[in-house]
Amino acid sequence: MNILLVDDNVYVLEGLLAGIDYPSLGIGQVFTAKSMQEAVELLETEEIPLVLTDIEMPDGSGLELLEWINENEPATVTIFCTSFADFDYAKRAVELHSFDYYLKPVRYDELQQLLKRAADEVHTRMQTKKKAFYSELWMSSISLRKRHFWEDVLLKIDSYDEDELDFLAQQSHLPYSKSSCFTLALLCFQKEQSKMEGFSEKLERFVMCNITEELSEPAGVCIETMVKCRRDTWLLVLSHGADMEKETVVEMFSRIVETLNRTIRCPVSGCFAWGNTLSGIRSRYMDLEMVSRECTGRESSVTDVDLFVKHGQEQAEDAARNEQAVRQIREYIDLHFCNTITAEELSVAVHFSPGYLAKLFRQKYGVSLGAYVIERRMEVAKRLLGETDIAISEVSVRSGYDNFAYFSRLFRRKTGMSPREFRAKAEKQKG
Fold first, then answer.
1. Host domain of residue 426
2. Is residue 253 within 8 Å of residue 221, measured between CB atoms?
3. In whole angstroms, what is the distance from residue 241 CA to residue 219 CA?
4. Residues 264, 217 within the same domain
5. How far is CA 47 from the centre of its chain?
6. How many Å is the maximal CA-CA distance in the chain?
7. β-strand 77-82 against 100-103: which pairing, if any?
8. Does residue 148 sit in the same domain as residue 253?
9. If we measure between CA atoms, which residue out of 297, 296, 361, 302 comes closest to residue 328?
10. Of 105, 125, 141, 220, which shows the fewest CB atoms inside 10 Å?
11. What are the distances in angstroms from CA 302 to CA 185, 254, 264, 272, 292?
């Protein structure tokens, strides 16, 4: 059995290495890391069933590390060893299923006993696999995984290439493929004019989810997720059987709009895009956003994006302004490409709808906004790998990727080489 000790304080690590009798616990190798990134790299390459980690660290906390472990190595036993007797930290640790929460200063005899219990737990999990426990834990997180998946896919233009969405779904253990079909819908209303004025987002979500789930389940429609994408706008991703008629979903969505209108006593406008495959769903969402802005404020209206476009009601802008806008957006991306850039952020910068802006950019430069961001990041990564000797994990962060594994895989796909191979080739050419 191996253990990983994670703490940004080198003296704490040295104390943990010297103060615990690891062989007596059945621990053969002790790995150390001074950051979340280093810890993730080790967990991805080594068999480490037991982790002892600090919480407060730069560039990623212990809580974030446990979130990563829960998603990628759920059988790992994790203990927090921290100086902070913080209720919120402890509450979050329990929510994330940490094994224990130990407060510094370290008393090595006590910690030895705690690690023995943790080692016993590791053995128990290995022997029984606790199938029922992990199944329940996994199912309880599916709604959160779905929400994160769709936020990445639809609300962040720089997260993943369009042709990798099925891979992202597999990584999130979601049953989606490129051919999976979804209906997208937006519900828009002015909150300050409704009965939900003053509601917290949690309470607002409760109202919205209750109404939509009550009306969708009898129709045989599944709500994959419901995400608040603007202050007064909710995004619904719906799935249904291949044999379901479009009219059935349209009727259900119309009932949702009517019920919301009566419940919150405020005009609600709804837009939907029927039958979208995963491989093309991002561009369809851009169309949906564009149409929803045109329709917001209409009395309890329901708009079919396809019909809206067919009747020629797409947003049109002056050609000179379009040219200036896409140049401005390109300059903005060139300055901020290492940060998370949302379609809404770019839209606010030039006062264009996200969907129309995305189309203008592709027409002008021949690539999508997301692809351009990735190209810029890869340029920086290649320069850092070829001209500096900083750690590859740091290159990943400076290039805009805090997910080292995804950075490495994307870099290989774009260049045909791993980051390490690219650096070696560059050094050989210099020599």
1. 373-430
2. no
3. 11
4. yes
5. 26
6. 76
7. parallel
8. yes
9. 361
10. 105
11. 10, 6, 17, 8, 10
For residue 338 the two structure tokens come to 């290492």
Range 107-128 burial, b when 16+ CB lie within 10 A, else e:
eeeebeebbeebbebbeebeee
246-255: long-range contacts at Cβ-Cβ below 8 A with a sequence spacing of 24 or more?
Answer: 246/274, 246/275, 248/219, 248/220, 248/221, 249/183, 249/219, 249/221, 249/274, 250/274, 250/302, 250/304, 251/219, 252/215, 252/216, 252/219, 252/221, 253/185, 253/302, 254/302, 255/215
Domain identity same for 72 and 111: yes
Q: How far is 186 from 26, CA to CA, in rounded Å?
A: 55
* Token pair 């302004």 in the structure block, residue: 321
The verdict on whether omega for the bond into residue 49 sits within 30 degrees of 0, i.e. cis, is no
Task: Encode the chain (431 residues) as per-residue pLDDT tens digits.
Answer: 899 999 999 999 999 999 999 999 999 999 999 999 999 999 999 999 999 999 988 888 888 999 999 899 888 899 988 887 777 887 888 788 888 888 888 899 999 999 999 999 888 878 766 565 556 656 667 888 888 888 888 887 666 676 778 888 888 888 888 878 889 998 888 777 778 888 888 888 888 888 888 888 888 888 888 888 877 888 999 988 777 888 888 888 888 888 888 888 888 888 888 888 887 788 888 888 877 777 655 555 788 887 776 654 444 445 677 788 888 888 888 888 888 888 778 878 877 777 778 888 888 888 888 888 999 999 999 999 999 999 999 999 999 998 899 999 999 999 999 999 999 999 888 76
Do 209 and 288 belong together in one domain? yes
| CA pair distance 104, 81, nearest whole angstrom | 7
Same domain, 341 and 413: no
235 neighbors 154 (Cβ within 8 angstroms):
yes
Give the whole-angstrom CA distance, residue 324 versus residue 343. 17
CB 278 within 8 A of CB 178: yes
